[in-house]
Design brief:
By secondary structure, the chain is of the alpha/beta class. The chain has 11 helices and 10 strands. Bound molecules: fe (ii) ion (FE2).
Length: 304
């Protein structure tokens, strides 16, 4: 059966993509950002997921303001990089996983989430920048990626609770897929930032760090946070963080925080990144199961 082994969240700042494409990653300003992802690249190289499910948002690249799906699942065999005004990014075409994506569509829709199914879609920096951050810049992406775009551009975006519950539905879908696949789910966007208006440039590190703490330990509290609190504390574009809750909902209640990185700024955005691993509860349960056997063996030795 397929299983979700871990969740990863990271900001998807477009300037990070531009720094990669323009070979500026060694410049001191950018080195500070990229050095925070070195451990993650190593972790990913060892984890070697069979499939990535990437929760991200489209920035009027695949969808214009004429059509804004709340949740759009990419079921295509491939997703070319979008032209965001400077030509498509020089990154590999994202290969999809149509079988798993179709299964997720069926399972999640029958579970009560009315996904939009997208059979043809270009993907923008919201998806390709996080891929770069954890996979580097390979000739081909090392595994298929299923994109799931969430509307956080035009009001109203889905609630944090709805995103968290969607994550749970995705988990049920993956768990019921008959192939043995190890899946990593990404939540992208954020952290605090506002790109226009009187509060442009807003960064709230205290809020961001508390969000990261709660993402690991108390995601249910985060799921209850209303939109207005994201707007007030994390800026207008901070609402992107609801996408991290889709990722978190797909994980176990108890997770192991493998790694965390936070730096400000990148462009005008706070950069946050976290790796959460599943299976902590399972390991404890296995250890508990094994413990009585050990006790029994010790008893038997004593008796002998
Ligand atoms: Fe974004």
């Amino acid at each position: 059966m397929a299983k979700i082994i871990a969740g990863i969240s990271s900001s998807h700042v477009p300037a990070i993509g531009a720094a990669i494409d323009n070979k500026q990653t060694e410049e001191p300003y950018w080195k500070r950002v990229f050095s925070g992802f070195e451990k993650s690249k190593k972790w990913m190289a060892e984890a070697k997921p069979d499939v990535v499910i990437a929760i991200y948002n489209d920035h009027a690249s695949a969808f214009s303001v004429e059509m804004i799906p709340t949740f759009a699942l990419g079921t295509a065999a491939e997703f070319p990089p979008a032209d965001e005004g400077w030509g498509p990014r020089p990154v590999p075409v994202v290969k999809g996983h149509p079988e798993l994506a179709s299964h997720i569509a069926t399972s999640v829709i029958l579970d009560g989430f009315d996904l939009t199914i997208v059979n043809k879609m270009e993907v923008d920096h919201g998806l390709t920048v996080p891929l770069n951050l954890v996979f580097g810049s390979p000739e081909q992406w090392p595994c298929p990626v299923i994109p799931l775009a969430v509307n956080v551009v035009q009001y109203p975006p889905p609630t944090g609770q709805r995103c968290y519950d969607l994550g749970k539905a995705i988990r049920r879908a993956v768990d019921s897929f008959p192939q043995d696949l190890e899946v990593v789910i990404f939540g992208t966007g954020g952290m605090s930032h506002q790109i226009s208006g009187p509060r442009a440039g807003l960064i709230n590190s205290k809020f961001d760090k508390a969000f990261l703490d709660n993402l690991t330990r108390n995601p249910k509290a985060l799921a209850r946070m209303p939109h207005i609190e994201y707007m007030r504390e994390a800026g207008a574009e901070g609402i992107e963080m609801v996408m991290w809750l889709v990722m978190r909902g797909a994980l176990d209640e108890k997770v192991k925080e493998v790694y965390r990185f936070y730096t400000v700024p990148a462009s005008n955005t706070a950069v946050g990144h976290i790796i959460l691993q599943n299976g902590v509860g399972a390991k404890k349960a296995a250890a508990k199961k094994a413990a009585p056997k050990k006790k029994a063996k010790a008893k038997a030795r004593k008796a002998a």
